[in-house]
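Researcher: I'd like a structural prediction for the single chain below. Treat it as a standalone chain; there are no partners to consider.
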Amino acid sequence: MKRIAAFEKVSFERFKNDSAEIMPEKAADIVYSSLKLPRRATKGSAGYDFYTPFDIKLEPGESVKVPTGIRCSMDEGWVLKIYPRSGLGFKYRLQLNNTVGIIDSDYYYSDNEGHIMIKITNDSKDGKTVEIRAGEGFAQGIFVEYGITYDDEANEERNGGFGSTTRA
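Model: Treating it as a single chain, here is the predicted structure.
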C-alpha cells in the first residue's frame, strides 16, 4: 500500500466558526476535544470512516451540514472521495448532497484550512428517521490516484471550498 496522506484536526477557531450555526461556542469547545480522526475499520477496508462530532437526527427529507473538524494533507496526484457509509445509504437512502465529495490535494492550503464539510440528507422513501450518535461513522473517504491530459496547462491556485475552482 502507498502511504500518501495524513488526517488532522483544523484549528479550534476554524471549527468554532464553521459550527456556529449548529452549536454554541461552549459546546464547540467540548465537541472539538472529542473529535476522532478518520480510520479504516479493518486492514482490508478501502474507506476511512468519518465520524459525526455530534448527535444527528434526520427525519425524511431533512439535511444537515456536518463540520467534521478534519482536514487532509495528501500527495499531489491523489484525491479523497467522500461517500456515505454503505449501511446508512442502504437502510435510509442517506445521501451526500453533492453525490460524491471531492477533496483535492490543494484544498488543504485554502484559507478555510481545508476543513472537510459533509452535507447529508435523509432521502428515505419509507418514512424512516436516521439517528447517528456522536462518534459514529456516517461517511467514508477513499483515496484515488488520478492522471491529467498531455496538454493540461492548469496553473491557478485554489483558495476556498465549494465552487472555488470555477472562480479561478
